[in-house]
Amino acid sequence: MPHFPKPAEGSWTEHYPELGTAPVSYEDSISPAHYELERDAIFRRTWLNVGRVEQLPRVGSYFTRELDAARTSVVVVKGKDGEVRAFHNICRHRGNKLVWNDFPQEETDGTCRQFTCKYHGWRYDLEGALTFVQQEEEFFDLDKGDYGLVPVQTEVWEGFVFVNLDPENTTSAREYLGSLGTGLEGYPFGEMTQVHRYRAEVGSNWKLFIDAFAEFYHAPVLHAKQAVADESRKLSGYGFEGLHYELDGPHGMVSSWGGMAPPKDPSMVKPIERALRSGLFGPWDKPIEIDLPPGINPARSPVWGIDTYVLFPNFMLLVWAPNWYLTYHYWPTSHRTHIFEGALYFVPPKTASERLAQELAAVTFKEYALQDGNTLEATQRMIESRVVTEFPLCDQEILLRHLHKSARDMVDDHERRRTESPVRISAAV
Ligand code: FES
Ligand SMILES: [Fe+2]
Which terminus of the chain, N or C, has less C-beta within 10 A? Predict the structure, then answer.
């Protein structure tokens, strides 16, 4: 794990000279053509987190994920050998989607012994092998061994299930996550199995919502009304300064202050938070003690409250001081729409008051996320006007600068490789 130095001089942004400090174009968030390129260059090539192992408790447990941006649907399943595998969700007979319930475009989950296609009844086992063909003798030299489900590279990292849709990919998910991932290893994610989930369709480019959650520069202003009046005035006076920023490859993290769980002075927070001993930062009482891995609170700050990891392209992981975590996913459905998912993970409550404290954290999170979400459609509409095309980003917005650069670089790189490929050249000749 590398040491995390605070820049001796200058800003966090200047610490990474490749980012530059110039105003940033948001054309990448409004151009339908650019989005089409992102689908192939990013979503069909990088490791995507599609869920957690707790969603697959038994042999035969499965769930589907609609990966519209990557132009496919996958089914993730636990095999007889306990391995987690993923397959493209398509029947090898005539291409029907294999696993779905009433609505083919909706995700589903469950437990089964095999997958049976609704169309003509072909069956596949949990390891993807074709095991039954209706009226097999009517086919011509059909070898069932040639018609298994199309596998997708799958890897479980710290209980998070990742898939990679690029059959030529040679990098493991662990390598892909780099030093930021390694620094999180050993955190007891698997003990936090009490989950509260939110899902929303949002009218903005996927990167705009990551932008909103990857900086806290907005927090004292946009969320001012969440604090009691006095506190809110103080907070907007202080502004926000991250304790630490770190970038590695396309990923980034910010470590932040978080003195509200518990607050120094209970009168800083609203009466319901005092009554339930909880709030946005989570329940005030830690359910378990954790020896934090080196990547969490890297500055070892005594006022540390939360680390926010932006794991490219569309997965965010937030680890909070009172020992719980939060995930965000942003699944694009067009250049100007995406599905947002937020999930809070707690150690299962042992008492009613622990349960209530978790519930309050969950509804408080929803309130904040709605405030964040509110600005997104307003921003999308106006940047689409192209009246203004370049936007100045401050030092506390370094992760946004990095996100957009990483996404643009990946598209450029993909385009370069595509146009340089021999097939393309001979086709052009
Ligand atoms: S399409 Fe699946 S069995 Fe025919
Ligand atoms: Fe916010």
Answer: C
pLDDT confidence band for 237 (50 / 70 / 90): confident
Which atom of ligand 1 lies closest to the CA of 117?
Answer: 2
Tokens of 173: 């998910």
Instruction: List Cα–Cα distances, 10 to 16, 176, 299, in angstroms.
Output: 11, 29, 18
Query: How many angstroms separate the alpha carbon of residue 92 from the centre of ligand 2?
Result: 45
Residues 252-277: tens digit of each pLDDT: 999 998 867 888 888 888 899 999 99
Given a contact cutoff of 8 angstroms between Cβ atoms, the answer to whether 321 and 305 are in contact is yes
Structure tokens at 53: 């192992």
Rounded to 10°, the helix 206-214/352-383 angle is 120
| Nearest CA among 188, 194, 190, 193 for reference residue 357 | 194
* Closest ligand, as measured to the CA of 280: 2
pLDDT for the residue 421: 76
Q: 93 CB under 6 A from ligand 1?
A: yes
The pLDDT of residue 423: 62
Is 215 in contact with 395 (CB distance < 8 Å)? no
Assess whether pLDDT exceeds 90 at residue 4: no
Read off the pLDDT of each residue in 152-177 and give the average, rounded to a whole number: 98
Ligand 1 and 132: CB distance under 6 A: no
Predicted confidence band of residue 3 (pLDDT cuts 50, 70, 90): very low
pTM exceeds 0.90 for this model: yes
- The confidence score (pLDDT) of residue 8 equals 56
DSSP labels, 171-183: S-HHHHHHHHHHH
Cis upstream peptide for 23 (omega within 30°): no
Task: Give the Å distance between the CA of 134 and the centre of ligand 1.
Answer: 9
User: How far is residue 261's CA from residue 363's CA, in Å, rounded to a whole number?
Assistant: 16
Cβ burial, residue 122 (10 Å; 0-12/13-18/19+):
buried
Q: Which of 88, 90, 97, 119 should be mutated for ligand 1, with most atoms under 8 A from CB?
A: 119
